[in-house]
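Action item from last meeting closed. Structure (75 res):
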């Protein structure tokens, strides 16, 4: 992946927002704010992973947190 993929990530976010905004049109402002904040967080994570592909993703974080719990439950 290269930095040329950043516009593709932005375009994907805009397309998703375009199709979802019609469903959110009659929803309260809190729902719209939650949607936009989650979308912004995911977009930033996508950009960071495009710029630094060796960075561990969210799955590795979950594995790091819950691996000791799994070992405890395995015994």
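Sequence:
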């Amino acid at each position: 992946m290269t930095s040329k993929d950043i516009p593709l990530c932005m375009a994907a976010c805009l397309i998703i927002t375009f199709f979802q905004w019609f469903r959110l049109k009659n929803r309260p402002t809190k729902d719209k704010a939650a949607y936009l904040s989650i979308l912004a967080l995911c977009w930033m994570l996508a950009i960071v992973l495009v710029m630094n592909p060796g960075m561990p993703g969210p799955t590795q974080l979950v594995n790091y947190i819950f691996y000791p719990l799994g070992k405890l439950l395995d015994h």
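Note appended to the action item: The CA atoms of residues 24 and 31 lie 7 Å apart.
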